[in-house]
Design a protein that fits this description.
Elements: H1 2-17, E1 20-22, E2 32-47, E3 50-69, E4 73-89, E5 92-97, H2 109-121, E6 125-130, E7 135-138, H3 141-149, H4 160-171, H5 173-182, E8 192-194, E9 198-207, E10 210-223, E11 227-238, E12 244-246, E13 249-266, E14 272-289, E15 292-308
Antiparallel strand pairs: 1-8, 2-3, 2-15, 3-4, 4-5, 4-6, 6-7, 9-10, 10-11, 11-13, 12-13, 13-14, 14-15
Helix pairs in contact: 2-3, 2-4
Protein backbone atom coordinates (compact mmCIF):
# COMPACT_ATOMS: atom_id res chain seq x y z
CA UNK A 1 0.00 0.00 0.00
CA UNK A 2 2.82 2.38 0.93
CA UNK A 3 4.49 1.63 -2.41
CA UNK A 4 1.27 2.41 -4.32
CA UNK A 5 0.84 5.70 -2.45
CA UNK A 6 4.50 6.61 -3.11
CA UNK A 7 4.17 5.87 -6.83
CA UNK A 8 0.96 7.91 -7.00
CA UNK A 9 2.65 10.82 -5.21
CA UNK A 10 5.61 10.69 -7.62
CA UNK A 11 3.21 10.73 -10.57
CA UNK A 12 1.42 13.78 -9.17
CA UNK A 13 4.73 15.58 -8.62
CA UNK A 14 5.83 14.72 -12.17
CA UNK A 15 2.61 16.07 -13.66
CA UNK A 16 2.88 19.20 -11.51
CA UNK A 17 6.46 19.81 -12.66
CA UNK A 18 5.21 19.99 -16.26
CA UNK A 19 2.14 22.10 -15.48
CA UNK A 20 4.10 25.35 -15.75
CA UNK A 21 7.07 26.46 -17.82
CA UNK A 22 9.08 29.52 -18.70
CA UNK A 23 8.88 30.74 -22.30
CA UNK A 24 11.61 33.29 -22.87
CA UNK A 25 14.42 34.09 -25.25
CA UNK A 26 17.57 32.51 -23.81
CA UNK A 27 19.80 31.60 -26.79
CA UNK A 28 23.35 30.36 -26.50
CA UNK A 29 25.79 33.19 -27.23
CA UNK A 30 27.79 32.84 -30.49
CA UNK A 31 25.93 29.68 -31.49
CA UNK A 32 24.55 29.76 -35.06
CA UNK A 33 20.86 28.81 -35.25
CA UNK A 34 20.27 27.79 -38.86
CA UNK A 35 16.74 27.51 -40.26
CA UNK A 36 14.95 26.41 -43.38
CA UNK A 37 11.71 28.22 -44.23
CA UNK A 38 9.32 27.11 -46.98
CA UNK A 39 6.41 29.39 -47.85
CA UNK A 40 3.85 28.14 -50.38
CA UNK A 41 1.30 30.66 -51.58
CA UNK A 42 -1.65 30.43 -53.97
CA UNK A 43 -3.32 33.65 -55.14
CA UNK A 44 -6.61 33.48 -57.04
CA UNK A 45 -7.82 36.77 -58.51
CA UNK A 46 -10.70 37.59 -60.78
CA UNK A 47 -10.42 40.52 -63.20
CA UNK A 48 -13.41 41.24 -65.48
CA UNK A 49 -14.73 37.75 -64.63
CA UNK A 50 -11.49 36.16 -65.79
CA UNK A 51 -9.83 34.11 -63.06
CA UNK A 52 -6.05 34.05 -62.74
CA UNK A 53 -4.08 31.80 -60.39
CA UNK A 54 -0.52 32.44 -59.25
CA UNK A 55 1.54 29.87 -57.36
CA UNK A 56 4.64 30.95 -55.45
CA UNK A 57 7.13 28.90 -53.43
CA UNK A 58 9.78 30.70 -51.39
CA UNK A 59 12.56 28.49 -49.99
CA UNK A 60 15.02 30.31 -47.77
CA UNK A 61 17.85 29.38 -45.44
CA UNK A 62 18.89 31.84 -42.78
CA UNK A 63 21.04 31.94 -39.66
CA UNK A 64 20.59 33.77 -36.36
CA UNK A 65 23.63 34.27 -34.16
CA UNK A 66 23.30 36.06 -30.83
CA UNK A 67 26.60 37.84 -30.25
CA UNK A 68 26.13 39.40 -26.82
CA UNK A 69 23.56 39.95 -24.11
CA UNK A 70 22.74 42.76 -21.71
CA UNK A 71 20.01 42.79 -19.06
CA UNK A 72 17.31 43.88 -21.51
CA UNK A 73 18.41 42.92 -25.01
CA UNK A 74 20.58 40.82 -27.29
CA UNK A 75 22.75 41.82 -30.23
CA UNK A 76 21.83 39.38 -33.00
CA UNK A 77 23.40 38.84 -36.42
CA UNK A 78 20.88 37.77 -39.07
CA UNK A 79 22.06 36.48 -42.42
CA UNK A 80 20.19 34.82 -45.26
CA UNK A 81 22.30 32.02 -46.70
CA UNK A 82 20.12 31.56 -49.78
CA UNK A 83 16.69 32.49 -51.16
CA UNK A 84 14.91 30.71 -54.02
CA UNK A 85 11.57 32.05 -55.25
CA UNK A 86 9.62 30.03 -57.82
CA UNK A 87 6.50 31.54 -59.39
CA UNK A 88 4.01 30.15 -61.88
CA UNK A 89 1.33 32.49 -63.18
CA UNK A 90 -0.90 31.59 -66.10
CA UNK A 91 1.55 28.92 -67.24
CA UNK A 92 4.50 31.33 -67.15
CA UNK A 93 7.37 30.28 -64.87
CA UNK A 94 9.55 32.88 -63.18
CA UNK A 95 12.42 32.01 -60.82
CA UNK A 96 14.73 34.14 -58.67
CA UNK A 97 17.81 32.54 -57.10
CA UNK A 98 20.20 34.33 -54.76
CA UNK A 99 22.95 31.79 -55.53
CA UNK A 100 23.18 33.24 -59.04
CA UNK A 101 25.22 36.43 -59.37
CA UNK A 102 22.74 37.85 -61.90
CA UNK A 103 23.35 40.63 -64.41
CA UNK A 104 22.60 44.26 -63.51
CA UNK A 105 22.59 45.36 -67.17
CA UNK A 106 20.20 42.65 -68.40
CA UNK A 107 16.67 43.41 -69.59
CA UNK A 108 15.64 40.06 -68.07
CA UNK A 109 13.78 40.77 -64.83
CA UNK A 110 14.96 37.59 -63.09
CA UNK A 111 18.64 38.27 -63.91
CA UNK A 112 18.47 41.74 -62.37
CA UNK A 113 16.61 40.50 -59.28
CA UNK A 114 19.18 37.70 -58.92
CA UNK A 115 21.89 40.38 -58.81
CA UNK A 116 20.26 42.29 -55.96
CA UNK A 117 19.12 39.18 -54.04
CA UNK A 118 22.69 37.85 -54.22
CA UNK A 119 23.90 41.06 -52.53
CA UNK A 120 21.18 40.71 -49.91
CA UNK A 121 22.40 37.22 -49.01
CA UNK A 122 26.03 38.29 -48.85
CA UNK A 123 25.41 40.91 -46.17
CA UNK A 124 24.30 40.56 -42.56
CA UNK A 125 21.93 42.61 -40.46
CA UNK A 126 22.89 43.40 -36.88
CA UNK A 127 19.87 43.87 -34.69
CA UNK A 128 19.20 44.84 -31.08
CA UNK A 129 16.42 42.48 -29.91
CA UNK A 130 14.63 42.62 -26.56
CA UNK A 131 14.33 39.52 -24.36
CA UNK A 132 10.72 39.19 -25.57
CA UNK A 133 11.75 39.28 -29.25
CA UNK A 134 10.91 42.90 -30.07
CA UNK A 135 13.27 44.76 -32.40
CA UNK A 136 14.71 47.77 -30.60
CA UNK A 137 17.04 48.84 -33.41
CA UNK A 138 18.46 47.61 -36.70
CA UNK A 139 21.99 48.78 -35.97
CA UNK A 140 23.43 48.75 -39.50
CA UNK A 141 20.23 49.45 -41.44
CA UNK A 142 21.54 52.46 -43.38
CA UNK A 143 24.73 50.62 -44.39
CA UNK A 144 22.73 47.54 -45.42
CA UNK A 145 20.25 49.67 -47.40
CA UNK A 146 23.01 51.52 -49.27
CA UNK A 147 24.78 48.28 -50.18
CA UNK A 148 21.62 46.70 -51.60
CA UNK A 149 20.41 49.82 -53.44
CA UNK A 150 23.81 50.71 -54.86
CA UNK A 151 23.74 50.76 -58.71
CA UNK A 152 19.93 50.88 -58.85
CA UNK A 153 20.27 53.75 -61.36
CA UNK A 154 22.04 51.39 -63.77
CA UNK A 155 18.98 49.14 -64.21
CA UNK A 156 17.38 49.09 -67.68
CA UNK A 157 14.68 51.79 -67.77
CA UNK A 158 12.12 49.32 -69.18
CA UNK A 159 12.11 47.25 -66.00
CA UNK A 160 13.38 49.87 -63.54
CA UNK A 161 9.95 50.64 -61.95
CA UNK A 162 9.33 46.95 -61.19
CA UNK A 163 12.84 46.42 -59.80
CA UNK A 164 12.64 49.57 -57.68
CA UNK A 165 9.28 48.52 -56.22
CA UNK A 166 10.60 45.04 -55.36
CA UNK A 167 13.75 46.43 -53.74
CA UNK A 168 11.83 49.06 -51.78
CA UNK A 169 9.82 46.24 -50.23
CA UNK A 170 12.93 44.10 -49.64
CA UNK A 171 14.83 46.92 -47.93
CA UNK A 172 11.96 48.72 -46.17
CA UNK A 173 13.00 49.16 -42.53
CA UNK A 174 9.53 48.49 -41.15
CA UNK A 175 9.13 45.35 -43.28
CA UNK A 176 12.51 44.03 -42.13
CA UNK A 177 11.57 44.78 -38.51
CA UNK A 178 8.23 42.94 -38.95
CA UNK A 179 9.95 39.93 -40.49
CA UNK A 180 12.50 39.67 -37.67
CA UNK A 181 9.86 39.99 -34.96
CA UNK A 182 7.85 37.22 -36.63
CA UNK A 183 10.64 34.80 -35.58
CA UNK A 184 9.73 35.41 -31.92
CA UNK A 185 5.99 36.20 -31.95
CA UNK A 186 5.12 33.32 -29.61
CA UNK A 187 7.11 34.78 -26.69
CA UNK A 188 4.73 36.20 -24.03
CA UNK A 189 5.34 39.33 -21.97
CA UNK A 190 5.00 37.20 -18.83
CA UNK A 191 7.47 34.35 -19.24
CA UNK A 192 5.85 32.00 -16.68
CA UNK A 193 3.02 30.17 -18.45
CA UNK A 194 0.78 27.40 -17.19
CA UNK A 195 -0.47 24.48 -19.25
CA UNK A 196 -3.56 25.57 -21.26
CA UNK A 197 -2.85 29.26 -20.63
CA UNK A 198 -3.78 31.63 -23.47
CA UNK A 199 -2.02 34.87 -24.37
CA UNK A 200 -2.71 37.40 -27.11
CA UNK A 201 -0.29 39.39 -29.23
CA UNK A 202 -1.41 42.17 -31.55
CA UNK A 203 0.86 42.86 -34.46
CA UNK A 204 0.85 45.04 -37.58
CA UNK A 205 2.35 43.43 -40.66
CA UNK A 206 3.30 45.35 -43.80
CA UNK A 207 4.22 44.04 -47.24
CA UNK A 208 4.33 45.93 -50.55
CA UNK A 209 2.65 48.85 -48.81
CA UNK A 210 -0.28 46.73 -47.66
CA UNK A 211 -0.80 46.72 -43.90
CA UNK A 212 -2.71 44.21 -41.80
CA UNK A 213 -3.67 44.33 -38.14
CA UNK A 214 -3.12 40.79 -36.90
CA UNK A 215 -4.24 39.20 -33.64
CA UNK A 216 -2.42 36.05 -32.53
CA UNK A 217 -4.10 33.89 -29.89
CA UNK A 218 -1.49 31.49 -28.44
CA UNK A 219 -2.22 28.49 -26.21
CA UNK A 220 0.28 26.30 -24.37
CA UNK A 221 -0.89 22.74 -24.98
CA UNK A 222 2.03 20.46 -24.09
CA UNK A 223 5.20 20.46 -21.98
CA UNK A 224 7.87 17.79 -21.62
CA UNK A 225 11.42 17.80 -20.33
CA UNK A 226 12.88 19.26 -23.56
CA UNK A 227 10.12 20.81 -25.66
CA UNK A 228 7.10 23.09 -25.46
CA UNK A 229 4.17 22.87 -27.91
CA UNK A 230 2.08 25.95 -28.62
CA UNK A 231 -0.96 26.27 -30.88
CA UNK A 232 -2.21 29.57 -32.20
CA UNK A 233 -5.17 31.05 -34.00
CA UNK A 234 -4.89 34.10 -36.23
CA UNK A 235 -7.31 36.85 -37.20
CA UNK A 236 -6.35 39.68 -39.53
CA UNK A 237 -7.88 42.63 -41.31
CA UNK A 238 -6.69 45.44 -43.53
CA UNK A 239 -5.04 48.37 -41.74
CA UNK A 240 -4.81 50.61 -44.83
CA UNK A 241 -7.02 53.66 -44.37
CA UNK A 242 -6.02 55.18 -47.70
CA UNK A 243 -5.27 53.61 -51.11
CA UNK A 244 -1.63 52.63 -51.61
CA UNK A 245 0.50 53.47 -54.64
CA UNK A 246 1.75 50.43 -56.52
CA UNK A 247 3.71 50.89 -59.76
CA UNK A 248 1.94 54.19 -60.38
CA UNK A 249 -1.57 52.92 -59.66
CA UNK A 250 -3.77 53.22 -56.57
CA UNK A 251 -4.96 50.08 -54.80
CA UNK A 252 -7.50 49.89 -51.97
CA UNK A 253 -7.01 46.92 -49.66
CA UNK A 254 -10.29 45.29 -48.57
CA UNK A 255 -8.87 41.99 -47.38
CA UNK A 256 -9.23 40.04 -44.14
CA UNK A 257 -8.31 36.56 -43.07
CA UNK A 258 -7.71 33.88 -40.48
CA UNK A 259 -5.33 31.05 -39.78
CA UNK A 260 -4.04 28.36 -37.46
CA UNK A 261 -0.57 27.26 -36.53
CA UNK A 262 1.59 25.16 -34.23
CA UNK A 263 5.03 25.77 -32.75
CA UNK A 264 7.46 23.39 -31.10
CA UNK A 265 9.87 25.38 -28.90
CA UNK A 266 13.07 24.25 -27.19
CA UNK A 267 12.84 24.73 -23.42
CA UNK A 268 16.55 25.41 -22.97
CA UNK A 269 16.79 28.50 -25.18
CA UNK A 270 13.23 29.44 -26.20
CA UNK A 271 14.06 29.05 -29.90
CA UNK A 272 11.78 27.47 -32.51
CA UNK A 273 12.50 23.84 -33.34
CA UNK A 274 9.74 23.73 -35.95
CA UNK A 275 6.52 25.50 -36.85
CA UNK A 276 3.68 25.07 -39.32
CA UNK A 277 1.20 27.88 -40.08
CA UNK A 278 -1.78 27.98 -42.47
CA UNK A 279 -3.49 31.24 -43.41
CA UNK A 280 -6.37 32.18 -45.67
CA UNK A 281 -6.85 35.80 -46.79
CA UNK A 282 -9.92 36.82 -48.77
CA UNK A 283 -11.91 39.83 -49.94
CA UNK A 284 -11.08 42.22 -52.74
CA UNK A 285 -8.57 44.73 -54.04
CA UNK A 286 -9.81 47.82 -55.84
CA UNK A 287 -7.50 49.10 -58.56
CA UNK A 288 -7.77 52.69 -59.81
CA UNK A 289 -6.31 53.32 -63.29
CA UNK A 290 -6.70 56.68 -65.04
CA UNK A 291 -9.84 57.51 -63.10
CA UNK A 292 -11.44 54.09 -63.64
CA UNK A 293 -12.09 51.72 -60.75
CA UNK A 294 -11.77 47.93 -61.02
CA UNK A 295 -12.62 45.53 -58.21
CA UNK A 296 -10.64 42.29 -58.05
CA UNK A 297 -12.03 39.50 -55.83
CA UNK A 298 -8.96 37.90 -54.23
CA UNK A 299 -8.21 34.74 -52.24
CA UNK A 300 -4.77 33.94 -50.87
CA UNK A 301 -3.82 30.61 -49.29
CA UNK A 302 -0.47 30.51 -47.46
CA UNK A 303 1.38 27.67 -45.75
CA UNK A 304 4.61 28.46 -43.88
CA UNK A 305 6.89 25.73 -42.50
CA UNK A 306 10.01 26.56 -40.52
CA UNK A 307 12.53 24.05 -39.20
CA UNK A 308 15.75 24.30 -37.21
CA UNK A 309 18.35 22.41 -39.24
CA UNK A 310 21.36 22.83 -36.94
Amino acid sequence: MKKIILNLLCSVLLISSYAQTSIKLNPEINKPYSYQSIVKQTIIQSVNNIERTTYTENISYYTLKFLEKSNDFYICEIKFDSILIKTNSGGYNFNINSKKTGNLKSDDLSEVLNYFLNKHCNNSLFVKVSTTGKVIEIINYKIFYNIIMNNIDSVNTKISPIITNQLNNLTNEKTIKNNIESYFLYIPENENINLNDIWNINYTFENNGMSFDVNYNFKLIEINDQLIKINNEILMKSANKEPINYEGNKISNNLKGSGKGSYIIKKTDGMIKESNIDQRIYGSLTLEIQGNSMEMPTTIEINTKTQLIK
